[in-house]
């Protein structure tokens, strides 16, 4: 009887039968074949930190979205949320790989092994105070309505940013942004359609949608405040001043919320970007315990 190859055999054969790191989204170098030389006039340390900021946003929000697996209100939405999470995971992988390519390493790197790619070391072996994500993405999901509001806000902000980053002087960052624009457009539009459906639906769905808007709005306080790293990279032609995104992002969000027959809360006063500086609440610590637990228990795991 002929041997029938299983999916596990196929994965093993695809990489020469060598054991592979069990926690990544794929096994090839995500920047393979790409010139990762840092252009003249750009501080590699600043570039690495900036990629951590954007990569951590994507990684943490991905983890929040995957928490809806088996919990979404309908099967089709479960698939949609999982696909959005995979898009963000791909963005995180590229951005963390770029951070690693310019020498950014977490303090806990010694817990990993030499066989673990830098992207995985950065994802699984940094502590909460080494993460540079915003408060928006680390907040707990809440109910489905709040999740959709958060996804709408996060994707509208990130889409506005990535649209501009396509002309970044760092060619790697520009390429990541160009790919991400298409994904983020879908995320934003998908969340917007859900908010319209919930806001203009039943009395209960309207109530929950408004509660979601009211809960998420304060989390936007630090989205439009630049760090010193961002300011330097703006001058170098690499980054975008988040203040430039304000009108576009608030305009899109206001339009969607109003069309959903919901009240637009007052925009919060600008706040210091504490998450970008490594200051987080207990929500991130709990999230990382789930995300990193297996990798830290078995740092040399292969399959």
Automatic annotation (TrEMBL):
Gene Ontology CC: cytosol
A Pfam short name: PaaA_PaaC
Top-level taxonomic group: Bacteria
Family matches, as Gene3D superfamilies: 1.20.1260.10
InterPro entries the UniProt entry points to: Aromatic_CoA_ox/epox (IPR052703), Ferritin-like (IPR012347), Ferritin-like_SF (IPR009078), PaaA_PaaC (IPR007814), PaaC (IPR011882)
Single Gene Ontology BP annotation: phenylacetate catabolic process
Protein's name according to its UniProt entry: Phenylacetate-CoA oxygenase subunit PaaC
Organism: Goekera deserti
Gene: paaC
